[in-house]
Amino acid sequence: MKKFYRFIFPIIIITLLVVNGCAEKPTPSLFADVPTGPIGVTPTVSSITPQDSALSGITTLTITGANFSSDPTKDLVYFNGRPVKIISSTSTTIDIQAPLLLADTVGAETGNFEVSTLNAEKFSNQIPYKVNASIYQFFLFSNTLRPYDFVIDQNSVFYVSMTNEIPAGLGVKKLVPGGALQDYASKGLETNWNAMRLGPGGIIYTVLKGTGAVFQIPAGGGKPATYKALPNVKARMATFDIDALNNIWLAGDDTAIYKIKPDKSLVTYLFKGNITAVRFFNNSLYAAIVADSQTTIQSFPVDANGNLGNAALYYDYSKDYGTESVNAIEFSADGDMYLATNNVNSPIVVVHQTKASEILFNGTLPKAPALFMYWGSNGYLYYTRGVVTDATNAVLITQTILRLSISKQGAPYYGQ
């Protein structure tokens, strides 16, 4: 009998093991991926750099505190309950990108930052902070109102060349921040003016593409009048600027660059090419020039008597960004060049004095052409964002004026 049990008992054990091995796996727990280690220490936040405020989607912020994870995938940062992009982290610092605001019609958002880490049961303390819009639509133009070139006076009043959606010219409108559009200059021959500058006494100077003349809009508004017509009626002018001696530098698709002196006398400098934008800065005239389907920025030195020197290559735009045209040139006071372009993937390009370049705001601008730019006060650069439509001509992106927070001043506009 004992032999029987010695024989049958191992068989029973083996059979049970085989049966259990063929059974289905248990359903996994809902909490299978949650860390099961000990509860971590609650993180604390002591400061945020820069203090007080940052530019939405642009500024890199450093959160300083304690009990963070050195693995950025295990840190969580929230601003007003929304997750924020983490760049890097250590146990005492977390670098983040300033959060994007919910819409470009929001000027700023004030809220709280807080931090958590995986395994920590509680969030950190909250730190109040202000995020300013880097891109701000300060005035809501409708689909049927399209702004083009504009100037801004010392009281931050805008004078905007407008069309409707057809497009048909609507003249120049006056826009007081926070107010409504007012008629300022009646429509003349133009659909829209192609460049505008403020001159002495509040007079607005402007040009109409395809003509050989500079026009004036009188101070206080009124009907545009011819200021100076070039003798060559075939000259197709498109752009101009005013220098420190109040000379007007006029250019376009022609065989020359023209200087109109304050006494209205004309000086012609032979130069064949299609010039799409000019800007006078630091004793030089800079020009965007299209030749052989390539766009370059050339610089022309201007001497103390206002005489134009020979062109020199300043920056090869097409080499870095393609063949789209440059519509406007601006400078910050510290010498950086800003190019408004038709390239929707890089609407505004910054060229530093080293000739290194970058897309402004790291590609966060709307994918639409940049038609015109003008510096305002308080470190704001304004630009006209061109309309984008689909195959049926339905508007996908409206044409409007956006304010960009550059945090630096623009170069001076002479004559105003």
What does this structure look like?
By secondary structure, the protein is mainly beta. Helices cover 6% and strands 46% of the residues. Residues 1-37 have low confidence and may be disordered. A 6-stranded antiparallel beta sheet has the order 19-20-21-22-23-24. The chain has a 5-stranded mixed beta sheet with strand order 2-9-8-4-5, with no helix packed on it. A 4-stranded antiparallel beta sheet has the order 1-3-7-6, with no helix packed on it. It has 2 domains: 44-132, Sandwich (Immunoglobulin-like), CATH 2.60.40.10; 135-405, Neuraminidase, CATH 2.120.10.30. The termini are far apart.
Strand proportion = over 45%
Number of strands: 33
Number of helical regions:
2
- Please give the domain count: 2
Mean pLDDT: 88
Assembly type of the chains comes to: single chain
CATH class of the largest domain: Mainly Beta
Cα gyration radius (Å): 31 Å
Can you list the strand order of the major beta sheet?
19-20-21-22-23-24
Shape: elongated
Per CATH, which architecture of the largest domain? 6 Propeller
The share of residues in helices is: under 10%
Profile the largest sheet: 6 strands, antiparallel
Structural class: mainly beta
